[in-house]
Amino acid sequence: MVSNQRLGSCSDVMASAVLNRDMSLTTTNPVKTLKTLVQTLHDGQAGFKNASENVKDTNLKEVFSRFSLQRSMFAGELEAELLTLGEVDPQKEGSTVAGALHRGWIDLKAAFTSNDNHAVLAEAERGEDSAKKAYNDALAEELPKPIAEIVSRQAVEIQRAHDEVKALRDAAKAAKA
């Protein structure tokens, strides 16, 4: 367990030991978890912005813009927590390689399908699946209560966004049939 004694590095202070059911110690680092979520949120923000720019349907533009803004706000909230935990520049996290590839795929899909709503929505849903996984992984960790509450609240909204995108995708598919 981390004692009250001053430790050598910020990551030592941020890491906390927790007991598993089998009584072995595992380390949960809220900084690492939050950085992963911030990267995921930046990926989603950029992906939704890109999608809003690549669809002609004004309803979808609004939906994608709304989710892009939501991801930006969520990232800001988690970046504020990172600052509280001693991180100097949490905004430098950027996006993940997988996220960059995801956004690139949306670019290609939109270009090759003449802004086909179903194709863009299907890719947006895949992006939402990634966001849900990142949040579920974070919720499975032992996070400090205030951080766990923020992550839990955001996870509910991520699930709602996923469900809305999925419903829109299904409606677009039915409209094509």
Please describe what this structure looks like.
72% of the residues lie in helices and 5% in strands. The chain has a single domain, classed as Ferritin (Up-down Bundle), CATH 1.20.1260.10. It is mostly helical and 177 residues long. Helix 4 runs antiparallel to helix 5. Strands 1-2 form a two-stranded antiparallel sheet.
CATH architect. name: Up-down Bundle
Q: Would you tell me which CATH topology applies?
A: Ferritin
What's the overall average pLDDT, rounded?
79
What is the total domain count? 1
- How many strands, what sense, and barrel or not for the largest sheet? 2 strands, antiparallel
Provide a quick synopsis of the model.
The chain is mainly alpha-helical.
Keywords:
mainly alpha; Ferritin
Write the layout of secondary structure elements.
Blueprint: H1 10-14, E1 16-19, E2 25-28, H2 30-54, H3 58-84, H4 97-112, H5 117-139, H6 145-176
Antiparallel strand pairs: 1-2
